[in-house]
Design goal:
The structure holds two protein chains of two kinds.
Chain A (H helix, E strand, L loop, with lengths): L2 H4 L3 E3 L5 E13 L1 E10 L3 H4 L11 H10 L4 E4 L3 E5 L4 E4 L5 E3 L2
Parallel strand pairs in A: 1-6
Antiparallel strand pairs in A: 1-2, 2-3, 3-4, 4-7, 5-6
Chain B lengths: L4 E4 H5 L3 E3 L5 E4 L2 E6 L6 E7 L4 H5 L3 H10 L11 H5 E3 L3 E4 L2 E4 L7 H12 L9 H4 L1
Parallel strand pairs in B: 2-8
Antiparallel strand pairs in B: 2-3, 4-5, 5-6, 7-8
Classes of the chains: A alpha+beta, B alpha+beta.
């Protein structure tokens, strides 16, 4: 699957409740480059510009705006994804998957 | 490559400039190919995707992207590697990820080189005032 396909996917939990759309993918290089987690939310522009968790702090007005816009961003562990149905634009989480705030 | 480094795919990989083993600019990261490991079920980055059509595909122009990738098959010599191999750069050949992404391969091994060369051979050299033939 391509990253661009993954970025259009909707993440739903085991009950079918929509968590959000994949905005970014966190990668960890520990030998091979593995997909560690998905950053899920509704927008994603602030994340892509590095305002959330990547040290971009200014201009302060933009930082405030993007922090506000991305407040609903969530982090989903890749191991918690039970089904990678990218062709159907849908990723289903396992039962008991933890979804934590990202920002 | 450094170990245990955390990256964000859209921020640290997509659209980054690629440099070949000689430092020559040779395209951008247009997309990233992710595969699921059969044994562990863990997804991992298999290759970066660069070349004709990959950007169009990423931007949602799926048909145009696929057509451009297919159309570019006629641009490279039959003796070259298959187009799929010239669009995908295995992650093992990425030597450094920073402001630019350094590759351990030559620019000529990439499909984007064929496209650029086609434009040079068929368009640029025919523009009056072009002196590229004089310098060959």
């Amino acid at each position: 699957m391509r990253l661009s396909d993954l970025l259009t996917c909707e993440v739903v939990d085991s009950d079918g409740t929509v968590v959000g759309t994949v905005n970014d993918v966190r990668l960890v290089r520990d030998g091979r480059m593995r997909v560690d987690a998905l950053i899920v939310g509704s927008g994603g522009l602030g994340i892509r510009l590095g305002y959330i968790r990547n040290g971009v702090r200014g201009p302060w007005l933009l930082a405030k705006v993007f922090s506000r816009l991305e407040r609903r961003a969530r982090l989903v562990d890749a191991a918690d994804v039970g089904s990678w149905s990218v062709a159907e634009h849908r990723l289903t989480l396992r039962v008991g998957a933890t979804v934590q705030p990202y920002a | 490559m450094a170990h245990d480094r955390v990256l964000h795919a859209t921020l640290d990989l997509l659209d980054r400039q690629l440099r070949d083993r000689n430092g020559v600019l040779c395209g951008n990261v247009d997309d990233v190919e992710i595969e699921i490991d059969d044994a562990s079920g863990q997804p991992y980055v298999a290759s970066i995707v660069t070349g004709p059509g990959a950007l169009a595909y990423r931007l949602g122009l799926r048909r145009l992207g696929t057509w451009l990738e297919r159309a570019s098959t006629g641009l490279h010599d039959a003796g070259d590697a298959p187009l799929d191999d010239r669009i995908h750069v295995p992650i093992e050949f990425v030597t450094s990820i920073g402001p630019t992404i350094e590759l351990a391969i030559h620019a000529k091994q990439l499909a984007s080189y064929d496209t650029e060369q086609w434009w040079v051979d068929h368009v640029i050299t025919h523009i009056p005032g072009n002196d590229s033939r004089a310098t060959e």
